[in-house]
Design brief:
heterodimer; A: alpha+beta; 4 strands; 38% helix; globular; B: seven-stranded mixed β-sheet
Chain lengths: 182, 434
């Protein structure tokens, strides 16, 4: 069972991802994070004539999230946006264990991820990059270009500490020795 | 030990008492007290190494909660009938039990909440609204659980106070010099730290922090979620002002937590939530509030949870919290040595292995992501946690996105460590490392 999930092809994409990096002038950039596990994907699309002309991603996370994103970018290059969304639908089918999707050669390397369907808690890992794609196409169709999804960062924890003023009154624990009421 | 003269017999007797207090646990018998552990996961014996997230429940706690519902349940307080009196008596007895458990001087210093998180939110909301303002500082640490961080961020946003974080050393311990610097620098009104780090197992010197906070005129809140399950503590001996802990990590039910606070601080705090139970007299325009601790227990409380928690306290004290603490330290030391020995590519986080720590071992193995490790281990029946452990600032400080965490409790022994090691070798095999 484990071997059917962590296949060599998946580990290969995890360790040597395709299209990893940044585009100089992306049409759309979408950042996605899975808040439960911290996996992150930043997807950049260069779109020309409603086609994915260029695609890059950056990210960090488990083998499934990163391999899925890498495989997705490979499958996306050159596709029309409609075609990209149709690929996304077929990949979702694959994650739901659909036999038609398992046999679909159009999914290419992505079919190696079919074992993930047996691990419900890990499906969201495989979908992270695809969620970014969905968001990117939606953003492009709405406004033509843009940057979506700010990175979630905590506020500055080392803010300047202001001047001292009067401290709260002194409390002496030695005077605090009452017995338990029974 | 005091510096008085000890006879040889006296010292021997003391040593015997000390040895008894920390005698090894009979983990095999203890395990039989936890029905959930008698099952197979993926055709392997369940090896539960996730007690730092939530412990399993012994038979006595499960039975107490069941029996309460079968025999004694009614709403508490103000009821005139027999069951109402019985439920109220048991609920208030649970409050006295938890006061003794925490070393509190008075039962009315114990507020029942939902969890450690709610206890801290209660203080941040009620104490914070009355005591924090622009120019004030709340001091947390880089190692805090989000539940001892985000409530203070909210309180600071609402009040205009600033938040600062005490740094940790590269060994995963609090930098007390940095604490001193920050206490000297500004108007620190409150210091909030964990007693034991959930992600690294570090035991913080809370008495020392309390002393320094008090000297600087600051209140001190301790997040005791990881300490309460596994070590004796005495809030008065520590010298803190607030102490928060949860039931579900210490063999008790979920949904019940405790806030201990000094009576005079509780007396001066405004209500946290409004509703039944927390009032004295209600008119349409305004109300007067009940005395503490009832002022902070709006609505029908988790009666069964409180009663079950008291039973969990009995259970832990029967086993012996000194022994549990010693057992966790032994298991952590064994695990650290074994993992370092077997896995050249492992990175162990947290204090130096020679430093005592709680039974928590946080690690990363080669380039295998912790979530992948957890999936593989689960297939071997081994339950560990993977992720940021609700400590994102700490993960940033360690320079990792996530770690795997194995936590050992009173029912875990060397067999469980063996299972972890086997599972990790399996992960190495699948990922082709090692």
């Amino acid at each position: 069972m484990l071997e059917s999930i962590f296949r060599e092809l998946i580990l290969d994409h995890y360790r040597r991802p395709k299209n990893k990096g940044a585009l100089e002038d992306p049409t759309v950039t979408v950042s996605m994070r899975n808040p439960l596990c911290g996996d992150e994907i930043e997807l950049m699309l260069g779109i020309e004539d409603d086609r994915v002309a260029e695609v890059r991603f950056r990210g960090q996370g488990c083998s499934i999230s990163q391999a899925s994103a890498s495989m997705m970018t490979e499958a996306l290059a050159g596709r029309s946006l409609d075609d990209a969304l149709s690929l996304e639908r077929r990949f979702l089918d694959l994650m739901h264990g659909d036999d038609g999707a398992k046999a679909d050669r159009g999914l290419g390397d992505l079919r190696a991820l079919q074992g993930v369907a047996k691990l419900p808690v890990r499906i969201k890992c495989a979908l992270l990059g695809w969620n970014a794609l969905d968001e990117a196409v939606r953003a492009y169709r709405k406004s033509g270009s843009g940057v979506m999804g700010e990175r979630l960062e905590f506020a500055d924890m080392t803010a300047d500490v202001p001047e001292a003023a009067s401290p709260p009154p002194e409390f002496d624990p030695a005077t605090h020795r009452e017995e338990l009421p029974e | 030990m005091s510096d008085g003269i000890q006879t040889a017999g006296g010292a021997g007797a003391m040593a015997a008492v000390e040895a008894g207090r920390t005698a090894p646990l009979d983990t095999a018998s203890l395990r039989r007290r936890f029905p959930v552990l008698e099952q197979q996961i993926q055709n392997h014996r369940l090896v539960y190494l996730d007690s730092a997230a939530s412990s399993q429940k012994p038979d006595v706690v499960i039975d107490t909660v069941r029996d309460y519902y079968r025999r004694d349940h009614a709403n508490v307080h103000r009821g005139a009938h027999t069951l109402a009196v019985r439920a109220t008596d048991r609920y208030e007895e649970a409050r006295r039990r938890m006061a003794r458990f925490a070393g509190a001087g008075r039962a009315d210093e114990i507020v029942f909440t939902r969890s450690t998180t709610e206890s801290i939110n209660l203080v941040a909301g009620a104490w914070g609204s009355a005591n924090l303002g622009p120019g004030d500082v709340v001091l947390v640490t880089e190692m805090e659980h989000h539940s001892n961080l985000v409530p203070w961020q909210l309180a600071c946003e609402a009040s205009g106070a600033a938040i600062g974080a005490v740094q940790m050393t590269d060994q995963g311990e609090l930098d007390l010099d940095d604490l001193d610097r920050r206490l000297a620098e500004g108007r620190v009104r409150l210091v909030a730290t964990a007693h034991v780090s959930n992600a690294l197992g570090t035991l913080h010197p809370v008495e020392e922090i309390a002393r320094r906070a008090r000297a600087a005129g600051a209140r001190y809140l301790i997040d005791g979620a990881q300490a309460a399950p596994q070590m004796p503590f005495d809030v008065r001996a520590i010298g803190c002002d607030f102490y928060a802990f949860s039931g579900h990590k210490m063999c008790g039910p979920t949904g019940i937590g405790v806030l201990w606070a000094r009576k005079e601080l509780l007396d001066a705090m405004p209500p946290y939530q409004g509703g039944g139970e927390m009032i004295e007299e209600v008119r349409v325009e305004r109300s007067t509030y009940a005395r503490v601790p009832y002022r902070f227990e709006a609505g029908t409380p988790h009666i069964a949870g409180a009663i079950g928690l008291a039973t969990a306290a009995d259970f832990l004290d029967e086993v012996g919290r000194d022994r549990i603490h010693a057992h966790e330290q032994r298991m952590a030391a064994l695990a650290l040595a074994r993992l370092a020995d077997e896995f050249p590519q492992i990175r162990l986080h947290g204090p130096d292995p020679a430093t005592p720590r709680a039974g928590v071992v946080s690690f990363t193995l080669a380039d295998i992501h912790p979530h992948d490790l957890a999936t593989i281990l689960d297939h071997e029946g081994v339950a560990v946690r993977a992720g940021h452990h609700c400590c994102q600032p700490l993960m940033r400080r360690l320079g990792v996105a996530a770690t795997a965490r194995a936590s050992f409790y009173l029912y875990n022994d060397v067999d469980d460590l063996d299972a972890l090691v086997r599972g990790l070798h399996r992960a190495e095999e699948i990922f082709g490392v090692g």
